[in-house]
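Structure (tokenized):
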């Protein structure tokens, strides 16, 4: 195979990995929610009203999937103030968690992301990977200095 491959890396919560995978890929709705978030920018706020208008699913369907994705740590739920018809209102919005961003990346082409979005994702993935390697190496009693040496060689 001569085509370049992109090394997708996703850290899944061990105790819930099947639930997470089923929640995302078991229906078209969560996939569409992740694609929507990518189209508007992976760090942007996701409003329920915009999802319903853009995706064409019922309010009940969207809410159900937003709850599931939030419960599994793919989305983070927040409250914020917005100005609407001259009034200040509190509204619920969602943002992708780090895990959510990794899944969203599976569904997009790399060239559709801005340089800043790619850099943010690289930093996040790198930090998570290092934390995982550190924990595993401590459990296996791998000398930290050896890992540091490898890191410095590869970064040179």
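Design, position by position:
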């Amino acid at each position: 195979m001569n085509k370049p491959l992109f090394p997708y890396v996703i850290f899944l919560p061990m105790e819930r990995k099947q639930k997470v995978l089923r929640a995302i890929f078991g229906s078209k709705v969560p996939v569409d929610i992740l694609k929507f978030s990518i189209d508007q920018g992976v760090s942007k706020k996701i409003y329920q009203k915009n999802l319903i208008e853009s995706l064409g699913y019922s309010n009940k369907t969207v809410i159900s999937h937003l709850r599931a994705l939030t419960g599994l740590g793919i989305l983070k739920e927040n409250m914020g103030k917005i100005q609407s018809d001259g009034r200040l209102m509190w509204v619920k919005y969602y943002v992708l968690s780090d895990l959510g961003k990794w899944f969203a990346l599976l569904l997009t082409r790399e060239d559709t992301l801005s340089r800043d979005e790619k850099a943010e994702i690289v930093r996040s993935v790198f930090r998570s990977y290092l934390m995982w390697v550190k924990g595993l190496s401590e459990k296996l009693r791998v000398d930290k200095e050896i890992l540091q040496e490898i890191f410095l060689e590869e970064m040179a």
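Reviewer-requested clarification: The beta strands are 46-47, 75-84, 87-96. The mean pLDDT is 84.
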